[in-house]
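User: Good morning. I'm curious how oxalic acid would be positioned relative to this chain. Could you predict the structure with it bound?
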Amino acid sequence: MSFTILYRSSSPYARNWQVELARHVPDLDFRIFPEIGDPAAIDMALVWKPPHGVLASLPNLKLIASLGAGVDHILDDPALPRQVPIMRLVDPHMVTAMSEYVLAQVLRLHRQDLTYAAQQRDGVWQEHRQKNASERRVGVLGLGQFGADAAVKLAALGFDVAGWSRSKKSIAGIEAFHGADGFAPFLARSDIVICLLPLTNATENILDARAFALMPQGAAVINVGRGGHLAEDDLLAALDSGQIGAAILDVFRTEPLPAGHRFWRHPKVIMTPHIAAATNPLTAAAIVADNISRLRAGRQLLHLVDPVLAY
Ligand code: NDP
Ligand code: OXD
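Assistant: Good morning! Here's the predicted structure, ligand included:
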């Protein structure tokens, strides 16, 4: 009996996934949405932003695998078959990639790149005082697989690093805050705030006017979580008033960001097109395949999403 996967993503890597998975699952029947064939034959869905209702139309679905670390793009389906387990990607190579991105952007802010780039454009030769890394307070929202690694690597560069999570954490060299009570003091001590939270009801719009007002004046924001974490109009107002000095944004409410959106040309905004930690089938397929063999052997699945916490 073959093992049948329905793949759905708008990225161009379907064939890479098929090839990489076939290395681990020799009897693979790989179907690419919308070519579903017999819906009853589908054992597993491997998806990014599946159209609402598609997963519910697969009567023998045993596992839903996210093509990313986040699962908000699956959980937002009102027709989601809630009894089917959902796994997310926990891939050390993605963690490394995310930390590369975060470190690169924090260093850019720390070394005042925006200021010097503007000066070069305007032909201005002017030195600004450079803080030591230890004088720069960096705060990481979310201390999960990505946040914890980025926090530790930032601390290794000498930054004064804190993190905020739902449950209490203890990570050497990181000042740990948690829960609702820890939020305001965490923000108040952070010159650069990096969002590495999952998007849930509890974290939606967490980067809003109230949060910006709690940060030191001129603080910077890096959003690599989800566009839904950020109240866009509040950020634009905070950038215009100077309360927030700069924003580096990798994720947006609407992707691709619509032409004409103010972020495109804002002098204090640096944008990237959701590339901070892209999924690479070369390494991720082995992680998915491991769960396929566990599923088939009736063993405990890994990297499952908590249906109550929604991450
Ligand atoms: P994890 O589940 O490993 O970690 C999530 C962290 O957020 C945990 O520390 C958790 O706290 C904390 N958290 C969740 N809810 C709350 C809350 N209400 N209050 C305070 N803390 C909270 O997630 P990952 O690190 O794997 O991924 C994080 C997100 O990164 C993804 O969901 C996705 O949106 C985004 N992402 C972005 C990418 C990009 O390219 N831009 C690539 C991949 C992911 P606790 O530890 O206590 O549970
Ligand atoms: C993810 C992403 O969730 O790329 O993995 O955003």
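The two ends are 33 Å apart (CA to CA). The chain is about 30% helix and 15% strand.
Let me know if you'd like a different ligand tried.
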